[in-house]
Design goal:
Blueprint: E1 3-7, H1 13-21, E2 25-29, H2 35-49, E3 53-56, H3 62-72, H4 79-86, H5 88-97, E4 105-108, H6 111-121, E5 125-128, E6 133-136, H7 139-150, E7 157-161, E8 166-175, E9 178-189, E10 195-200, H8 206-222, E11 228-237, E12 240-247, H9 255-263, H10 267-276, E13 291-296, E14 301-307, E15 316-319, E16 326-327, E17 335-340, H11 344-354, E18 356-360
Parallel strand pairs: 1-2, 1-3
Antiparallel strand pairs: 4-7, 5-6, 5-7, 8-9, 8-11, 9-10, 10-13, 11-12, 13-17, 14-16, 14-18, 15-17
Helix pairs in contact: 1-10, 2-3, 3-4, 4-5, 6-7
């Protein structure tokens, strides 16, 4: 039995299943440290555990995983590809110089620069921080968003022209520089801009699906991705698909399960196969079932109550929390449900509405004074 280090993957069920099918053990590590500190910690653990691979299941762990893999002589995604896809300003610059610049952008180091960019755009812009983004339409909105996002930004805040449109993602993998598209996923987003679910296959024409696969192939090639899985997000706008971002890992929210059910392609298995050096088999698409997942997003507080309805009526359902857990908004979805077949979306919505999770505000202990 060998051991694979998984960063931030305690709730990535498909990835864990792909590792366990191979008879390997999983060593879990949270991505709580800065990349360099995390690399040193991994090196210390590797001296004891002798990992055969490192897999980053979360965005925060990708840089450390690539750096540690290179340092320890393990197979993995190249650091260049990780940096090109993880740094939005770098990604936009590379694509702009290659003739694929789709939106105006600027790395701003002061609120004044951001205000100037907002005025020049003459419409809404998006501010991207370390773990969050904010759509800004006025100087007053900019003031509040800048104070919140710039606090944790390194080297400035990326400001981009905002475009309206529905959101989809392309799931696929690359083998020796050739991209193979597996599925197009529709994203369900609520009025606050929070993703609350996904659906496959996306309701797009065959021509648009082929175009999205072709656009994705060109984008990831320009960004230096030659092998491994990718999850690439697009907005479908009046002027055509506009790239939002791409990452060298599988999407979250049970997307790998949806892809397997709708297309027959197991991208979680492909991710593990690449990591351990087995090589990725050329995927063969099939026309599978219509599938949907609905998610219960996290909010700050302490979980006081969890009730999940009987899951026998759906394909699968589960929770990631129990009563007493302290959670934050960047936590994994609190619960999820997957449905298949006719009316998959409606049945997923109906089941999700019956999930009850109560979050109470975290109380700060009162200081006691001596009497």
């Amino acid at each position: 039995m060998h051991t694979i280090l998984v960063i931030g993957g305690t709730h990535h069920l498909e990835l864990r299943a792909a590792i366990e099918r191979r008879g390997h053990a999983i060593f879990d590590l949270a991505a709580n440290d800065a990349p360099l500190a995390l690399v040193e910690r991994i090196a210390t653990l590797h001296a004891q555990q002798k990992f055969v691979a490192i897999v980053a299941a979360c965005e925060e762990g990708r840089v450390a995983a690539a750096m540690a893999s290179a340092k320890l002589g393990l197979r993995g995604v190249s650091l260049g590809a990780v940096l090109n896809t993880g740094d939005r300003a770098r990604m936009r610059s590379i694509l702009h110089h290659a003739g694929m610049g789709q939106v105006l952008f600027r790395k701003c180091t002061t609120r004044g620069e951001a205000a100037e960019f907002l005025m020049n755009i003459g419409g809404a812009i998006v501010l991207y921080g370390q773990e969050e983004a904010a759509v800004v339409r006025s100087s007053s909105e900019l003031h509040a968003a800048w104070e919140r996002i710039s606090r944790r930004a390194v080297g400035g805040v990326l400001c981009e022209e905002h475009v309206d449109g529905s959101v989809v993602s392309v799931e696929g993998c690359s083998i020796s520089g050739r991209f193979h598209g597996a599925a197009v996923t529709s994203h369900a987003i609520d009025r606050q801009g929070v993703t609350v679910g996904y659906e496959q296959p996306a309701r797009v024409s065959d021509d648009l699906r082929k175009s999205l696969f072709a656009f994705t192939s060109r984008v990831i090639a320009l960004l230096g991705v030659t092998d491994g899985v990718t999850h690439t997000t697009w907005k479908l706008t009046a002027r055509g698909p506009v790239l939002i971002g791409t990452t060298t890992r599988n999407g979250g929210g049970r997307i790998p399960l949806l892809t397997q059910l709708s297309s027959g392609i197991d991208l979680a298995d492909a991710e593990v196969a690449h990591a351990v050096g087995e090589g990725i088999a050329v995927p063969q698409r099939i026309d599978g079932e219509a599938v949907a997942v609905r998610l219960i997003p996290a909010t700050d507080g302490i979980v006081s109550y969890v009730d999940l309805p009987d899951a026998s009526e759906v394909y699968a359902a589960g929770t990631s929390v129990t009563a007493g857990d302290l959670i934050h908004t960047n936590h994994e979805p609190l619960a999820w449900v997957v449905t298949t077949g006719e009316r998959a979306v409606q049945r997923a919505d109906a089941f999700a509405a019956r999930i009850e999770i109560i979050i109470e505000e975290e109380r700060t202990p009162c200081a006691q004074t001596a009497s």
